[in-house]
Design goal:
Layout (H helix, E strand, L loop, with lengths): L1 E6 L13 E5 L4 E4 L5 H7 L7 E5 L5 H4 L2 H10 L6 E5 L1 H13 L8 E5 L3 E5 L3 E7 L7 E7 L5 E2 L1 H6 L6 H7 L4 E3 L2 E3 L5 E2 L5 E5 L7 H7 L4 E5 L7 H7 L4 H11 L3 E5 L9 H10 L3 E3 L5 E5 L2 E5 L7
Parallel strand pairs: 3-4, 4-5, 5-6, 14-15, 15-16, 16-17
Antiparallel strand pairs: 1-2, 1-18, 2-3, 7-8, 8-9, 9-14, 10-13, 11-12, 18-19
Helix pairs in contact: 7-9, 9-10
Bound molecules: zinc ion (ZN) (2 copies).
């Protein structure tokens, strides 16, 4: 799995940061979490193809998370997209999309399946599952957690050879969990392989005040991407505006036992996010402050942070 940050600013874009958007690449597709204004330009700079996006998940109806969506839909239509697109979000998002369709000549070339966000599973295909959890914010808002299933079982070639199974497509079938018949004998995947490793999971907070129930939802994620609108000095302001501080983000990471914390959604007042990163690191050392076009790669048990998408192959 690869996570690309296309926007890491709260409320307004800055010279260095676009408003919120995260693009996640899996083995067979791509998924977009929030769609801040200016998203299309960011996709182009990052050389990411919008057609590959299978589903879009919008946390809530604040401008900095949703204004990039209309343009993206139109571009997909201009590219003659045929594959249906799933959009997950609140009822207000559905009304917004309906209004756009009525007021503009959208003429989409593909079907849109709208799923109203709710607590629990909101999207699932063979490869991934996404679950949602309501957060505490000034409008209905959701955190999302994406799981990417590992489809291939751990395969033991020596066991297969011992059973006389020739190298080739039969190995592949068994590795994907199917039984085969060889010379009238049934061979099950268990005879030559172990179950696939557990799914990789990434949690994204969206906008939220800090609260304990959210911790359970993030429990043991490989990566937690958590909003850090303010530094700890402005904790009162964060509580009042139903946002979080870098310290609260670190507390969420510590209590939920994640492997890596990524801070994002910074107030424009922080030209440099070093301070926020340092505050968080005092509580949860494995923390990094996101930058636009930063990329995180999760391979097997290895999580690496790469500063620039160009080096993230
Ligand atoms: Zn926001
Ligand atoms: Zn918001």
């Amino acid at each position: 799995m690869k996570i690309v940050f296309l926007g890491t600013s709260a409320a307004v874009p800055t010279k260095e940061r676009n408003t919120t958007s995260i693009y996640i690449v899996t083995t067979n597709g791509a998924y977009l979490f929030d769609a801040g204004e200016g998203l299309q330009k960011q996709l182009q700079i990052a050389r990411l193809n919008p057609i590959k996006i299978k589903a879009v998940f919008i946390s809530h109806m604040h401008f900095d998370h949703v204004l990039g969506l209309p343009g993206l839909l139109m571009t997909m239509a201009l590219m003659n997209r045929k594959e249906p697109l799933t959009i997950v979000g609140t009822r207000k998002l559905f009304q917004f999309l309906k209004m756009l369709n009525e007021k503009f000549y959208m003429d989409l070339t593909f079907g849109v399946e709208f799923v109203e966000a709710h607590q629990g599973s909101v999207y699932e295909n063979k490869e991934i599952k996404v679950v949602a959890f309501p957060t505490i914010h000034s409008t209905e808002s959701y955190a999302y957690r994406i799981y990417e299933y590992k489809l291939k079982r751990k395969f033991y070639p020596e066991k297969a050879l011992k059973l006389g199974i020739p190298r080739g497509p039969l190995w592949n079938k068994l590795q994907l969990g199917n039984s085969i018949i060889l010379n009238g004998r049934k061979i099950t995947p268990e005879m030559v392989s172990d179950p696939p490793p557990p799914p990789v999971s990434v949690s994204i907070s969206g906008d939220t005040a800090y609260f304990d129930e959210l911790i359970d939802f993030f429990k043991e994620s490989d990566v937690l991407i958590y909003e850090s609108t303010f530094s700890k000095e402005l904790e009162n302001k964060a509580n009042e505006m139903l946002h979080s501080t870098s310290e609260q983000a670190a507390l969420a990471a510590l209590k939920s036992g994640v492997k890596l914390l990524v801070l994002y959604h910074f107030s424009e007042r922080y030209k440099n996010t070093k301070l926020l990163e340092e505050e968080a690191k005092k509580i949860f050392p494995n923390t990094v402050a996101a930058k636009d076009f930063m990329c995180i790669k999760i391979e097997d048990n290895d999580i690496s942070t790469i500063d620039n998408i160009e080096k993230c192959e």
